[in-house]
Specification:
The chain has 187 residues and is an alpha+beta fold. It is built from 6 helices and 8 strands; from the N terminus they run E-E-H-E-E-E-E-H-E-E-H-H-H-H. Strand 4 and strand 5 form a beta hairpin.
Length: 187
């Protein structure tokens, strides 16, 4: 079972992964503007209405959009960098030798070395195997004679939700994938 619901704003911008319980609260308060997904993620049943003899139930969709405007424009928020998301962004490929490796065999490598003020940001980090990372050392790619085989970039809001690596349903994955920017490495 995939217990996470993708919460969107009214315009369809991903806001957060929420639990079934949080989603049910949005349904119960009438906050859900629209929903998407192939089949309900879950059906929760409540008590019986004595007058009608019917049990209450709420079908929770895997994707829900909430009424109202978002308090902040999340397209202006830079997604947080983690090692797992960085390696998935780079498709587990070393930025110097283009070899594909297991996650445990890759490192986060600063293009502009950290010792020289290089920040921990999406545009200054790439995946690198240990051999290439050690060979480059505290030099820039130009100084080391090791050009990058791909450029680092900041993932879009939709890419970030896919990069988080959650175990999500295929229909939710496809919904996010259809909204990836043209030329995304995740396609």
């Amino acid at each position: 079972m995939h217990p996470h619901v993708l919460q969107l704003d009214i315009q369809g911008t991903p806001q957060a992964w929420i639990s079934l319980e949080q989603a049910v609260l949005h349904y119960a308060t009438g906050s859900v503007a629209w929903e998407d997904g192939d089949l309900p993620l879950a059906t929760l049943r409540g008590g019986f209405n004595v007058a009608r003899g019917v049990q209450s139930r709420i079908d929770v969709a895997p994707i829900i959009a909430l009424r109202g405007a978002s308090k902040i424009n999340l397209f202006d928020v830079v997604p947080g960098v983690t090692k797992g998301k960085l390696l998935r962004r780079d498709r587990h490929t070393c930025a110097y030798c283009a070899g594909v490796f297991h996650e445990r065999d890759l490192q986060c490598e600063h293009v502009m070395p950290e010792s020289r003020g290089g920040p921990w940001t999406w545009t200054n980090l790439v995946s690198a195997c240990a051999v290439c990372n050690n060979r480059k050392a505290a030099r820039t790619p130009e100084e080391a004679g090791m050009p990058l085989v791909y450029l680092p970039y900041v993932p879009s809001r939709f890419e970030n939700f896919l990069l988080e690596g959650r175990n999500i349903r295929a229909d939710v994955h496809e919904w996010l994938a259809r909204r990836l920017p043209k030329g995304s490495r995740l396609q």
